[in-house]
Amino acid sequence: MEPIQDDNDQISFQYANDCDLEIHCSPFGLSGLYIKVKGTNIMGVGSTMGLITGSTKGLIHYNDSQDLMDQKYKLYLVVEDDGMLRIDFTKISPLAQGSEDISAGPAGDSMPSLIFRGKCPDGRPSHIQPFIGIFSFERED
After folding, report:
1. What is the C-alpha to C-alpha distance for residues 81 and 7, in angstroms, rounded to an integer?
2. Which residue of 34, 60, 64, 93 sits 20 to 30 Å from the alpha carbon of 41, by its own alpha carbon?
3. What is the C-alpha to C-alpha distance for residues 19 and 137, in angstroms, rounded to an integer?
4. Is the domain 13-94+107-139 a CATH 2.40.128.480 member?
5. Rounded to whole angstroms, how far apart are CA atoms 135 and 115?
6. CA 90/CA 97 separation, integer angstroms
7. What is the pTM of this model?
8. Cα–Cα–Cα angle for 74, 79, 82, nearest 5°?
9. Which conformational region is residue 29 in: left (phi greater than 0), alpha (psi within -120 to 50 degrees), or beta?
10. CB 62 within 8 A of CB 44
11. So which domain of life are we looking at (predicted)?
12. Which H or E run contains 36?
């Protein structure tokens, strides 16, 4: 599999699955984010602070299938110069007494466990700054 690269680091993944992604803007500044991994019973739901709305298809890159099951992530979303939407998924680590560590910054103080990459939906302004979100993967029954 080809490495995914950003300005500072190069990340290699062993696996990639097709998936469908939907983002729905709300009038309250939060957008719902939904991902369905094709050929599996894995789906995810989250929210973002972005201005993108619409549906797309893409690949979710990962190294361990356990990363797609019952995991919580912080998101860093960016529309790249080539019109592709990239979403970095960085695990939220539990701390003592039920709190969660979400301290790693968007620049990637820790490397993402998963990366989605697909054509950015057309429902967006012409220039979008990177934005953040939260996300959870679960298995459908």
Report:
1. 13
2. 93
3. 13
4. yes
5. 13
6. 21
7. 0.84
8. 145
9. left
10. no
11. Eukaryota
12. strand 31-37
